[in-house]
Amino acid sequence: MSVRLHTLANGVRVLCDPMPGLETIALTVVAGRGAACEDAARSGWSHLMEHMVFKGAGERSARQIVEAIESEGGQINAATGYERTSFQIRALKGGLPLGMEVLADLVLRPTLSEGDLEREKSVVGQEIAEANDTPDDLVFELAQSAAFEDQPLGRPILGTVDSIAAATPQTLGDWRAALYAPDRLVVSAAGAVDEDELLALANQAFGAVQGQGAPESPANSFTGGRRPTIRKLEQAHFVAMLPAPGSKDAAYFALRVFAEALGGGMSSRLFQEAREKRGLAYSIDAYADTYADTGLLGLYAGCQAKDAAELARVAAGEIASLLTNIDEAELARSKAQLKAHLFMGAERPLARAEQSAGQVLMFGEAFTSAHLAASIDAVTAADIAALAERLTGPRKAVGAVLGPKAAMAAPQAFEQALFG
After folding, report:
1. Rounded distance, CA 226 to CA 209, Å?
2. pLDDT at 218 (0 to 100)
3. Per-residue pLDDT tens for 233-254?
4. To the nearest whole number, what is the mean pLDDT of the chain?
5. Dist. CA 166–CA 160, nearest whole Å
6. Which of 101, 121, 268, 291 is most buried, by the most CB atoms less than 10 A from its CB?
7. Cα dihedral across residues 106, 108, 113, 118: positive or negative
8. Kind and range of the H or E element at 284?
9. What confidence score (pLDDT) does residue 124 get?
10. How distant is the alpha carbon of residue 194 from its chain centre?
11. Which DSSP string do the residues of 42-101 spell out, in sequence order?
């Protein structure tokens, strides 16, 4: 059965994805706004808001929220990204009414007390400090800040201690109304769900929501830059990034296939050449991050500091080689891996509910797995070659390295090997 899409009178969209034979449900409420909507003064407020709703909402305290869900065998969670914020419940069959009630309270009626806010600012401050103390987190933040310098996508989702400190219950409440406005709100359920029940509950819980959303941010553009950062570590952490197509671009699936072939598994170019053949890295992979208006191709490697520059040159060489010479066996293998990720995810109700909501927010419709698989299968070697101008033509790259001084040449080595 295909996903059914309904739109309430106020613009809130409702997705129903029944999965016969299951005894569980997944329910998610997804707002199509996140950290990318924030200006510098409100950096981190979307993530802070996600924390605060769990401190009390509707008539329930923080403890009562989790006890209500867990007493019926459910689990509750939330996540903040650059372009979306989501609140999720997994529960046993029959848990839809309670799940809808609790999620509506979190999104629409958080308590936002002064005392809770001050305590949660301290918690988020500890998260920020933890990220700064975790090398393989910090190196990605350094790279992201270089990729989109002085732009929303270049600021950390957690924000800064100063930007978080500026929030008050009133200003954060105003931000909540803009962040979770009905024009970009999706209620999505998968598993043992009944379409009529879901639609009735969603209309009762979210049908009266009003308000204006946060203004759209200017389009982000890939700037590139180097972030060599010396730390007293045993190993070096290296991230490289190149500008790439966004989620709405026709080259999206070619980018995903390319990233899979480059560093998506143990048969990938980077794993085989850098790790297996040369022993330059203990961990290496590649990935594609895409947003509405832009994207990036990234790679991460953990290595000895003395090997970082050589590793960067090898990685650049594999990118250049793959763009001009991907054979049919390698192309087929990469497509198969990508489809496997897709179909394995589709076996989990929460992954299905989240994916469908994201597609509706981005494209206005939910796609079947068969449609996505066909799009992957349609990618050709010529499509991969066409990516060369998108990835390397602008001659912009990010190189971020964190570790001993001996590793600091890696960003420059990557650029020189790729661009000459």
Report:
1. 45
2. 78
3. 999 999 999 999 999 999 999 9
4. 96
5. 10
6. 268
7. positive
8. strand 283-290
9. 97
10. 29
11. GTTHHHHHHHHGGGEETTEEHHHHHHHHHTTT-EEEEEE-SS-EEEEEEEETT-HHHHHH
**Is 50 known to be catalytic?**
yes
Q: Mind listing the pLDDT tens digit for each residue in 287-318? A: 999 999 999 999 999 999 999 999 999 999 99
Q: How confident is the model at residue 1 (pLDDT cuts 50, 70, 90)?
A: low
At residue 29 the predicted structure's pLDDT band, cuts being 50, 70 and 90, is: very high
Neighbours of 238 (CB within 10 A): 32
d(CA 340, CA 399): 31
User: Measured between alpha carbons, how far is residue 289 from residues 95, 107, 299 in Å?
Assistant: 34, 27, 11
Q: Report the distance separating Cα 327 and Cα 82, nearest Å.
A: 35
* Superfamily classification of domain 225-419: Metalloenzyme, LuxS/M16 peptidase-like (3.30.830.10)
Q: State yes or no: pLDDT of 52 exceeds 60.
A: yes
Angle between helix axes 114-133 and 45-52 (nearest 10 degrees) is 120
pLDDT for 382-391, tens place per residue? 999 999 999 9
User: What residue segments make up the domains of the chain, in order of their start?
Assistant: 4-206, 225-419
- Determine the angle formed by the axes of helices 308-324 and 252-263, rounding to 10 degrees: 130
The domain 4-206 having CATH identifier 3.30.830.10: the answer here is yes
Go through the chain and tell me how many residues it has. 420
* Beta-carbon contacts of residue 191 (< 8 Å; ≥ 6 apart): 17, 18, 19, 22, 24, 25, 26, 93, 349, 353
> Could you give the CA distance from residue 411 to residue 298 in angstroms, rounded to a whole number?
13
pLDDT digits (tens, 9 = 90+) for 124-146: 999 999 999 999 999 999 999 99
Q: Distance between the two ends of the chain, CA-based, in angstroms?
A: 53
> Same CATH topology for 4-206 and 225-419?
yes
Q: What is the DSSP string of 178-223?
A: HHT-GGGEEEEEEES--HHHHHHHHHHHHTT---PPPPPPPPP---
- The answer on pLDDT for 373 being more than 70 is yes
Residues in contact with 154: Cβ distance below 8 Å, sequence separation at least 6, in sequence order: 144, 145, 146, 147, 148, 220, 223
Catalytic option among 23, 38, 50, 141: 50
* Per-residue confidence band for 2, with pLDDT thresholds at 50, 70 and 90: confident
Q: Is the pLDDT of residue 217 over 80?
A: no
